[in-house]
């Protein structure tokens, strides 16, 4: 745990008692803060009270003595409208912050400020976060990993010499961290997502930009420049005098890191100064993973690792569950769990990485559906549609792609496995890449991916 000393002897309101909220409450109490916590869920309140965390309805709180409202990232700050606790705080002139902000304040109070890498983007955050932590550990560093991926940030070990923090940051967390100031900030990409919580793409991009715009003096901003939003952000950050490392998997760069075939190339002043082959690294298959690898490479270099050490670490990276995870091969059929692909942009990354795909898709649809994936339909031999989105996806596929209305994942896995095995193709792939949220049938994408893995493991070879 990282005790939060910056609110010692001060009164703090806390709303949201899920995993990160409980970790934040513990950290505040350990640092000597006077905490009053609440949640809209009676079960969450009961759980917190059982731990000895002071609880009480924030409606009845005397806000005149409260120094801050610490808000869990899942609670609306601005859109579709501020949560009632936010309105109470704002009416009283009380700042509204989150756990990432508390960490940043503690880091600035440390005798020796520990290195801190923060990672964001619409897609690829978790893989990049895990890969960077892996590289640092290969290089002998004590890498603490958490935030939006892994443990809550304040549940990590406290700062000490040689310790590095590698933190995934969602847009919700950034919105609650006004003084976010990493030593290395990574912005991978931007595409429409979470617009119900940010109101517009413009506001969503502005929030994400804060992570790289806030990089501390002497730090490094690592930015993918393959979309117009991020290109403009990179130009603005560099124009403000920050060091920027640009990344591209679509074009060569005179300065930065780009993809040439299956090689990552580090360029300086138009010269190629280092080449890192990615061919044969199954955990980093596809151009999207090349971008993740490029970002992790740039961040590891900024944190002091030698290119040769980074190359060794990249070759040994095991990958992440639910992100193009190679589950099993039966005969010549490869089964891939890409349950984390909860939107079309993420599913595109899987579709471009394979040929001869037997595609399991569907769930709770997001805006735009799978229409953006039409250029990749020729790669799909057949689609197996599940969940609420099945009818909509069937209409989009039309006559271009054969499909089967499966309804549930178990039916889809059985049908896709049967058809792939009988296809006569050399390298058929049964791919779960839903392009949808899971919430119609599963509590989260992890449970959906776990179910896929279990279903595949039960198939007879």
Walkthrough of the structure:
With 461 residues, the protein is an alpha/beta fold. The chain folds into three domains: 5-97, Rossmann fold (3-Layer(aba) Sandwich), CATH 3.40.50; 101-315, UDP-N-acetylmuramoyl-L-alanine:D-glutamate ligase, CATH 3.40.1190.10; 325-457, Mur ligase, C-terminal domain (Protein-Tyrosine Phosphatase, Chain A, Alpha-Beta Complex), CATH 3.90.190.20. It is 34% helix and 22% strand. It has 15 helices and 19 strands. It has helices at residues 19-30, 42-50, 84-91, 99-109, 125-138, 171-175, 195-198, 201-213, 228-239, 287-302, 307-315, 344-351, 390-397, 409-421, 445-457, and strands at residues 11-15, 34-38, 66-71, 95-97, 116-120, 142-147, 163-168, 184-187, 220-224, 243-248, 256-260, 263-268, 271-277, 325-330, 333-337, 357-362, 380-386, 403-407, 429-432. The strands form three sheets. Strands 6-7-5-8-9-10-11-12-13 form a nine-stranded mixed sheet, with helices on both faces. Strands 14-15-19-16-17-18 form a six-stranded mixed sheet, with helices on both faces. The chain has a four-stranded parallel sheet with strand order 2-1-3-4, sandwiched between helices. Helix 5 crosses helix 11 (307-315), helix 10 runs antiparallel to helix 11 (307-315) and helix 14 crosses helix 15. The longest helix is centred in the middle third of the chain and has 16 residues, at 287-302. The radius of gyration is 23 Å and the shape is globular. The termini are far apart. The relative contact order is 0.08. Residues 119-300 form the Mur ligase central domain. GO terms for molecular function: ATP binding; UDP-N-acetylmuramoylalanine-D-glutamate ligase activity. Cell wall formation. Catalyzes the addition of glutamate to the nucleotide precursor UDP-N-acetylmuramoyl-L-alanine (UMA).
